[in-house]
Amino acid sequence: MAEIKSFVYINRKAPHGTIYALESLEVVLIGAAFDQQVKLIFMDDGVYQLTKNQDPEGIGMKNFSKTYAALGDYDITEIYIDQESLEQRGLSIDDLQELVYEDEDDDWKEKSSMRLVSREQLASVIDSADVLLNF
Predict the structure, then answer these.
(1) Does some domain include residue 1?
(2) What is the percentage of the chain residues whose pLDDT exceeds 90?
(3) Which range of residues forms the domain containing residue 88?
(4) How many structural domains compose the chain?
(5) Minimal CA–CA distance to 8: which of 34, 41, 30, 32?
(6) Reduced to 3 states, what is the DSSP secondary structure of residue 24?
(7) Which of 49, 107, 118, 130 is buried most deeply by CB count within 10 Å?
(8) Cα separations (Å) of 74 from 1, 5, 45, 57, 83?
(9) Is 15 left (phi over 0), alpha (psi -120 to 50) or beta?
(10) pLDDT digits (tens, 9 = 90+) for 82-128
(11) Would you state the pLDDT for residue 56?
(12) Strand pairing of 109-112 and 114-117?
């Protein structure tokens, strides 16, 4: 039986109004806790999941967006943001919360986990996956 090496999670849905974003985050954290190699992609309305200063209280939803800051603690260091999706929504990387990890190979220096990429680059990340989960 072949060993599964890489899990890629694609997040396409807005953070509120459905359970997709929260369920994806929970599955990612569980997988990483069991030493899965995890890569995340945020595209389409999924880029809204990482926006700063979310306040869904008015629609009766819980704000779980601050949980993304814990991804680095789970050794999730590859977070891909689709540049085209940001541009189509009038957003830039500056509108997103900063996600970082501490690089143990570089004296625990804090580094960004986020990579702003083209659709062509995303295709390469997707092609590298042993398991692909779409939310």
Answers:
(1) no
(2) 78
(3) 6-134
(4) 1
(5) 41
(6) helix
(7) 49
(8) 27, 16, 24, 28, 25
(9) alpha
(10) 999 999 999 999 999 999 999 988 999 999 999 999 999 999 999 99
(11) 67
(12) unpaired
